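User: Hey, my collaborator sent me this sequence without any context and asked if I could get a structure. I don't really work with proteins. Can you help?
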Amino acid sequence: MPRWKALPEELDPQVGEFTGQLRRLVDRSGLSVATVADRTGYSKTSWERYLNGRLLPPLRAVVALAETTGAQPAHLTTLWELAERAWSRAEMRQDVTMEAISVAQARAALGELDADTAQTGPEQKSAKTAAKAAKAGKGAKAGAAAPDGPPAQEGFPHAPSSADFPEWQGAAAPAPAPPAARRARRGRTAVFAAGAVGALLVAGGAVLLLKPSAGPPKKVSAAAAPAAAPSAQPTLPTGVRCTGDGCVGKDPEKMGCGGTHATTSSRGVAGRSVIEVRYSAVCHTAWARISRAARGDQATISAGGHSATAQAERAGDAYTPMVAVSGDPAKVAACQTTMAGAKSCARPVPATPAAGGPVPATPAAGQATRTVR
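Assistant: No problem. I've predicted the 3D structure and written it out in structure-token form, which is a compact way to encode the shape of the chain:
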């Protein structure tokens, strides 16, 4: 029985290549998934998802696996960057597809509601017409049974009397007008209403024609002109809670700017520790992150007149609050300072090579990226 399950067919090729590299590292080390989980600090269930292509591992887990298996962290980190971008594109396509499905379902539901309303309308009209006809028939029978009273009217089960209309008491009931007279009255009322409307229209037109010209329009000075309406707030993806200057000094994970919304724009290596500049194009912010550092080492980032600092704890990992970035993220400065006074700064990550091309070499520890003050 093979050790690994087949990867999902819908998995992006770059993510599949990265997952295959992780599998080869584990096979080459001869470790079981449970042993990998114990040595890296991530659960066995999480590693099963990572190695089966169901979830993209975080960078810290990848670096921990490289340290456990004796692999080169820099090369594995480069492959992880490619897989992370492909994973983000796949999630965006899935979100667009789900949104289209929701819109189609909503339109279909509204179409069914309109069809039900159209079918119910004629039935209700037919029912009302039948009810009126039944009442009219009962009234006619009642009128025939009581020849001395007034004829039965529509809507009454019997001939109307003074008990139905108190105003009839003490006065003779008015004789119903013949149909011809009623039609004549309706015609006169309609003619009178049309004449009144026409007179109003003629009077309004005369006022507009006789009104003197108000002259050329006055020029409005720039100072008196109303200020332009502020631009609408940009729509942010689900989970993202700030953007630009509104994110300065805040935690990138809590504000939703990290994870799939962030990429590494610069990186530096000092010994076994890594300093990175994480950039979020959605939030227009950046922050510094150090991994595998010694306790007390500091990470500092500065951009746009703002700066932030974080100190590594016992685990050796830390990241700073965010600073706003309005231009090229490669120009953001981020450095790591050790307890001994050594300083290393991140350098821009080279352009991503084409799929299947050579992976750019990463400076070895202590080369170019490390200066001692």
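In plain terms: The two ends are 57 Å apart (CA to CA). You can pass these tokens on to your collaborator as they are.
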